[in-house]
Design goal:
The chain contains 14 helices and twelve strands. With 529 residues, it is α+β, with helices and mostly antiparallel strands. It folds into four domains: 176 residues, no CATH class; 98 residues, Beta-Lactamase; 74 residues, Helix Hairpins, CATH 1.10.287; 144 residues, Histidine kinase-like ATPase, C-terminal domain (Heat Shock Protein 90). It has a five-stranded antiparallel sheet. A five-stranded mixed sheet has the order 7-9-10-12-11, covered by helices on one side. Helix 2 runs antiparallel to helix 3, helix 4 runs antiparallel to helix 5 and helix 11 crosses helix 12. The protein binds adenosine-5'-diphosphate and magnesium ion. Magnesium ion (MG) binds next to helix 12.
Length: 529
């Protein structure tokens, strides 16, 4: 940069001289200027070579400054020493050195300039150096007072310039360093903030004091299933977090310094559970800047909670009912045994015989029901083996198609692909599940309809969907679907779903239900391989 600036300055000086020369149309004694310019160009080449070989910046700068001072001294000499108009060029060098090398370089250069200038004019004054022949201006008489005054004025100028320029330059340097550090800190802080806000799995919305959303993070947009742009600029009540009245209440509590926490189970009219907290947002200076709204999707968690609750309840009910069933069975056996003995007595009338047969038949039936029930509630030991789940499903549907329950108005559509898929589990129990689900579907369509059974493989699990066009279930029915003894079917026991649930659970799978009242039900069984 310095090399380039020097060339520009020298060339400008030369061009200016040439223009003056041609406009005044008289021969000016400018040889010294041509020499100085030529010398500078030659030195420039040397400086470039030096810069390429010596990497040290300060060495390069010092050598160039020294070269400049020498050229300037020559110029000042040939233009008349004390009378030269070019002594200001020293100041240019001092400024350049002070800017680039700071105080030490500036003072060194000022001293160099003072020594060279002082020595030059002294030696000229005392006649050691002859006065140059060509002089641009008429020389004024060189008195000693003029000599000293001129030297003192120049020296003062050199040092003052060096101090002032280096002070400013150093200050500038420090400020820009500080600025760099601050900028870096700020960038890091911003990146950290950004990362935190973008990475947290919770949703974050900032609200202006008016309740208008001004920011939403990606997780938030994801939870709300909205584009960020569709959220920004909308009011918190429009987004479904609050009713207008609820928002007014919340604002009052926020103003009192509270954090407002809520859980919504039917967020925005959907079956999405959302937990959220609103708190005031203040800037660093304590100015109210609105509110932050942090929210989480609790749907999955609520579902898990419900599953756990259901499992607990089923375990308890199962235990209890198994105990009762068992307690009935023993006296029942005693009753049946006694009646059997009484029946074989010969003194009974035909009528009495008939009544006793009824007792025996009914107790046998009751005993069978209890056995069935016990088998359901405490499923037989699992006998895991490899079995073809797709084939089991087809067989179960064949069975159903040939059962009296299926009327001509019923249609079973099958989309079983692939037609064979091997699982490890208890084939009999799984068949029982298929039977229960398919039968329920048919029972849910008393006036006929279509049961579609389709299968798919997903993540190595086998999914079976039983979709019917039956009457569907209400939200309340849906919640109690797996509880034992809940039935809406005329001859139902309310055990089918409970047992199916248990069996699938024990196979490490899951049952998902979606149902719309009056439209139909789809029950998905997922069985891991
Ligand atoms: P059951 O069949 O003995 O009634 P389940 O446990 O199999 O007992 O079913 C419990 C209840 O769940 C049924 O009575 C019925 O109200 C409801 N249900 C089950 N499956 C369906 C279905 N596919 N469509 C509508 N309701 C159903
Ligand atoms: Mg059933």
């Amino acid at each position: 940069m310095l090399i380039a600036v020097r060339v520009v300055v020298v060339t400008t000086l030369l061009l200016a001289a040439l223009i003056i020369q041609y406009t005044v149309r008289e021969v000016l004694p400018l040889n010294y200027l041509y020499i100085a310019t030529g010398l500078t160009y030659a030195l420039t080449l040397a400086y470039i070579a030096l810069a390429l070989t010596v990497p040290s910046r300060s060495v390069n700068l010092m050598i160039q400054t020294l070269g400049d001072l020498c050229v300037e001294t020559l110029l000042v000499y040939f233009t008349g020493g004390l009378d030269s108009p070019f002594s200001f060029l020293y100041l240019v060098s001092v400024i350049a050195a002070s800017m680039l090398l700071y105080r030490r370089g500036g003072l060194l250069t000022a001293s160099g300039a003072a020594i060279l200038y002082g020595a030059l004019v002294d030696l000229m004054y005392y006649g050691v150096f002859p006065m140059p022949e060509q002089s641009l201006f008429l020389p004024i008489a060189w008195t000693s007072s003029r000599l000293y005054f001129n030297m003192a004025a120049n020296f003062a100028g050199f040092y003052a310039t060096a101090l002032l320029t280096s002070y400013l330059s150093e200050k500038l340097q420090r400020t820009s360093e500080e600025l760099d550090v601050n900028r870096q800190n700020l960038a890091e802080l911003r990146a950290l903030n950004q990362n935190v806000v973008e990475s947290i799995p919770s949703g974050l919305i900032t609200l202006a004091t008016s309740g208008i959303a001004s920011f939403i993070n990606p997780a938030g947009a994801n939870i709300l299933q909205m584009q960020p742009a569709a959220v920004l600029g909308r009011h918190v009540t429009e987004l479904g977090f609050f009713t207008p009245n609820g928002w007014d209440d919340a604002r009052e509590r926020l103003a009192a310094g509270d954090v407002v926490r809520r859980e919504l189970d039917d967020f925005a009219g959907a079956a999405q559970s959302l937990g959220f907290a609103v708190s005031p947002l203040t800037t660093l200076d304590g100015v109210d800047a609105g509110y932050t709204l942090i929210f989480q999707d609790l749907t999955e968690m609520k579902k898990l909670e419900a599953e756990v609750r259901l499992k607990d309840r089923m375990a308890a009910v199962g235990e209890l009912s198994a105990g009762i069933a068992h307690e009935i069975r023993n006296p029942l056996a005693a009753i049946a045994g006694s009646v059997q003995v009484l029946k074989s007595s010969s003194s009974l009338s035909t009528q009495e015989q008939r009544l006793m047969s009824i007792v025996l038949k009914e107790s046998e039936r009751l005993n069978k029901s209890i056995s069935d029930f016990l088998r359901f509630v405490r499923p037989q030991e699992k006998h895991p083996a490899e079995f073809d789940v797709a084939a089991s499903l087809s067989e179960t549907l064949d069975l159903l198609e040939n059962s009296p329950e299926l009327q001509p108005a019923h249609e079973i559509r099958r989309a079983i692909a692939p037609p064979s898929f091997t699982l490890v589990g208890d084939g009999d129990q799984i068949r029982q599940v298929f039977w229960n689900l398919a039968r329920n579907a048919v029972q849910a369509m008393p006036k006929g309809g279509v049961l579609t059974v389709s299968t798919s493989i997903e993540n190595g699990s086998y999914n079976i969907v039983f979709a019917d066009s039956g009457r569907g279930m209400s939200q309340a029915d849906l919640q109690r679907l797996f509880q034992p003894f809940r039935t809406n079917f005329p001859s139902g026991t309310g055990l089918g779903m409970a047992i199916s649930y248990r069996i699938v659970q024990e196979h490490g799978g899951r049952i998902d239900v979606s149902s719309r009242e009056g439209a139909g039900t789809a029950i998905t069984v997922t069985l891991p391989r």
